Amino acid sequence: MAKFAVVGAGAWGTALAAHAARLGHVVTLWALEPEVADEITNRHTNSIYLPDLPLPETLRATSDMGAAVDGADVVILVPPSSHLRSVGTKLASTLGPKTYVVVATKGIEEGSLKLMSEVLAETMPALGERLAFLSGPSFAKEVARGLPTDVVVASRGLATANAIQELMHAPNFRTYSSADPIGVQVGGAIKNVLAVATGACDGLSFGDNARAGVITRGLAEMTRLGVALGANPLTFLGLSGVGDLVLTCAGDLSRNRTLGKQLAAGVDPKEYLASKRSVAEGFSTSAAAYALAQKLGVEMPITENVYEVLHRGRPLKQAVQMLLERTHKHELEGIV
Fold first, then answer.
1. Annotated catalytic residue: which of 106, 114, 191, 261?
2. Overall fold of domain 3-179
């Protein structure tokens, strides 16, 4: 049994906290809103982010971040990617010398174009190899319900990944280890952008062939970017690549796929997202991923067009036409 702190009481953070509590760990969940923390502790529900799902009675929540992580053996960070830097800065001086930090946030920081590992290397430099990244095909609602799920935990040198695997693995939450934190992060970030594209395809009634094509060519984009950053290309055939990509691009619980369907319906993306409390990471990640690809000279046409539609007002049908009219290519160009 270990002491866990989960920072971020959205759907995904709450689901991970519930899983850890069911394994018998002592778990404290940090919520930004005091009313959410109070509801989790006293009513064992999170009606805003995970409605209609009971939470373990042993799970406790607080709106005091310092109190949540005090004495924790494992801290799981689940804020939106745009807030990870500020969270890391706040927590840097409060963590114990043996505390493991697990990042379950998926994205690329806008402006700096840094992966979450690079952000924490700047804000929590003392962590060293006690940092891991959790990803894979895992809708929060299904994890919270205890449905079978496979995830991957990656760390440099594997020691931390193995330690977290030992603490979080369960028959209904199979936890695999990886020594490729860069690949696992890239897969988790880019799949959200590609899910916007597949959602738009579905919204336009382009059919199953088109969806499969976007997923497959999107996987090529993801792999090209990851390899350029130093990832192992085989990582993208695993849970944080193909696995998470298929789930997010085809599953109805995907917020990013839903955003794409809204685009196809003619809804303004910024107005749509402003009306939601939950974050669709594909919106901000599309801008960061496109800029990073440009910087590295990596060709990512689907990502580029998602960015242009979401941030620069390119008409969706024009973006589709531009993708369809691209010149023919070798299938593995830029990968091998």
1. 191
2. Rossmann fold (3.40.50)
